[in-house]
Each structure stands twice: as structure tokens, then as C-alpha cells.
Amino acid sequence: MIVRKTLFTKEIITADELGRACSPITRVAAMVVVRNQFAGQDQDDLSELFEIAGELGPKMSTELVSMLPGPAVSYGKAALVGTAGAMEHGAAVLHPKLGAPVRAAVGGGQALMPSNHKVGAIGDLIDLPLGHKDDPWAFDFIDTMTLSIADAPRADELILCIALSDGARANPRVGSRPPGK
Fold first, then answer.
1. What pLDDT, in 10s, does the model give residues 147-171?
2. Residues 144 and 13: beta-carbon distance below 8 Å
3. Cα–Cα distance between 181 and 103 in angstroms, integer?
4. Entry's SUPFAM superfamilies (predicted)?
5. Residue 145 phi/psi, 5° resolution?
6. Contact present, 149 and 124 (Cβ < 8 Å)
């Protein structure tokens, strides 16, 4: 595995999009740019891509947990595959081996980890979905972090992304119920 760069981002939200104050919400994301060994190839066995998440997932998750001021309550994952790759390459790095290390780092994770993967060009945006780690019906926690890296992914690369949050959306008004109810 060839890692070209790792990027961490931290957002502290103190008001909603209308400027109404809210309790601080911290959202953190880790993005790792790796070479996609199957770029430009028609490959049925993608199991070698599973190992990217198996190796990087624990490190990324542990670092993200340390960046939050409190416990993580929401999580999500995404992959942006360079133009010589296939969307299935993104699925291969996200699904078989990434959930377990993230769940271990956040101390829970009964709910399915929301995910997104797509093929894109250098600098494209990826919308990483967030959801409550233990209650998929906690609608106030359904959120999105939009991420990008200016010089990635190159055609033969992919970006693996993980995000965590310590709160719901700013001032949610959709009628969600509290987690666990």
C-alpha cells in the first residue's frame, strides 16, 4: 500500500446556517490518499483493497476520537475513487473491514455506519453521511460532512474518509426522537 498523504479536519459548529446559536458540535474527519492498485484494470477479486481499511482504519479512528472533546455519537465513512478506478473499488475499502475498527474506537456502534462512494476527479467533493452510532432512527443525527482534497484523487488513487461527531445537527427541527426511545 502506498499512502501519499493523510489529512485531518476539525469543525466546531456554534450556530446553524441561519446564524442561530447552538451548543457547540464538533465534527472531525480523516482522509487518506492511497494508490489504487486496480486503477485501469478489470478485476473481480478486490480483496487486496479490503486490507487498506484493515490497516488504516484503526489508526484513523483512534486519532479522530482523540480530536473530539467528548464521546463520539455519530459516525460515517466515504471513498472517492480516481477516474481510472471503479466505484466498486470504493466499496471494497469501505465495507468488509472498516466498520469494526471504527466501532471499537467509538465504544459502540449498533447502527449501520452510513457510507458513500463515487468516482471523481482531482479536487472533487465527497459527501460523507453521518448517522447516530447506536440508533438509526435518531433522525436529528443524520448529517453530512462535505470533504475534498485539492490535489486528490489522481486517476490512479482513492481517498478513504472517516468522520465522527459529538452531537446532532445544529438546531434540528425534524421531529426526531432521542436515541434509544
1. 999 999 999 999 999 999 999 999 9
2. no
3. 21
4. BB2672-like
5. -110, 125
6. no
SS3 breakdown of the chain: % helix, strand, coil, rounded to 5?
20, 35, 45
Q: Tens digits of per-residue pLDDT, 70-97?
A: 999 999 999 999 999 999 999 999 999 9
pTM passes above 0.70: yes
Q: Answer yes or no: are the C-beta atoms of 95 and 128 closer than 8 Å.
A: no
* 95: three-class secondary structure by DSSP: coil
Q: How far apart are CA 17 and CA 15, in angstroms?
A: 7
What does the DSSP 8-state code read for residue 59?
Answer: H
User: Which residues face 84 on adjacent strands?
Assistant: none
Question: How far apart, in Å, do the first and last CA atoms of the chain sit?
Answer: 43
Run of H or E including 132: strand 126-132
In sequence order, what are the residues at sequence separation of 6 or more whose Cβ sits closer than 8 angstroms to the Cβ of residue 116?
A: 76, 78, 79, 126, 127, 128, 129
* Three cell numbers, residue 30: 480523516
